[in-house]
Task: structure prediction
Amino acid sequence: MGAAKNRARREAHLFTEIEGRVHHLGIGMPAPGFYDDSAFLHAGQADPKLIELYAQYVQHRPRTAEEDARTSAIVPRLTAIIARQVAVLERPGACVDGSLLLSRSLDRLGVWNYIAAGGFNAELTARRALGKRYLWVVDRLDPGAGQLGHVWVVAPPFAVVDATIKSQGWDAPFAAAMPDWLAASDTQLAAMTVEDIIASEVREAYFRKTGQLDSNLHRMLRPDLVAVSEKFPGRKLEIGSVRLRYLPTGICASDDQLEGIGTLSGLDGARIWADYIVPAFATYPE
Result:
């Protein structure tokens, strides 16, 4: 009981600090999507990582049981709608636009959320000899090198919300095992490793160059990962016959409103919102 009280006290203190920083920006009554506020955008011009403050606010703000019940009713339903639209595209990847559309839609529905980008890997629990499948973040041996890896949404109490997990171009055994979409609240913390983040070819190139296998290579190439992992730790879970790991390496948000999402992927945020999401939630209570 004492440990639980101490955790609650630390959490409350942390949120007070985060809330104070948000109010200092000039945002008095934060609402989902307040990263669009002119004060936030102005401050973000000098601090590209300010979006992490938004994510921390979402992650640590107190929630009521009623709010969690509403979120739990909306998130799976919305994720399934967007997952079906991503599948119709038959375009492997699309995790960026799919997650942007999911996040912007949640904002409009009044559900707190943020977007995480980072490493992802999957393993079949009954067929471990097949090895893991990875979406890596660092794919070349240069300081600061990187790509998105994978992109997903966090919408507390859901630690991982993934509308594009099925549409990543998996080979047959993994494609069959992957869920159509994922909204997971029952997850465990996962410590980031070099294998989660750095492509195998990059690790091999480093070994050829130095003669060393460096378990901290990901932190050397991406020094910011220590701070990111402390704020946004990784998550792992099992669903069906597949074991999944999500390792955030950064936080992102859409520069476009919902109607501007999908111009490159063809996802067409405006059409999906009007034709599928609005009808599905038209009578949903505020």
User: Anything to note?
Assistant: The chain has two domains: 1-62, 64-281. The chain is about 45% helix and 15% strand. The first strand starts at residue 114 and ends at 124.
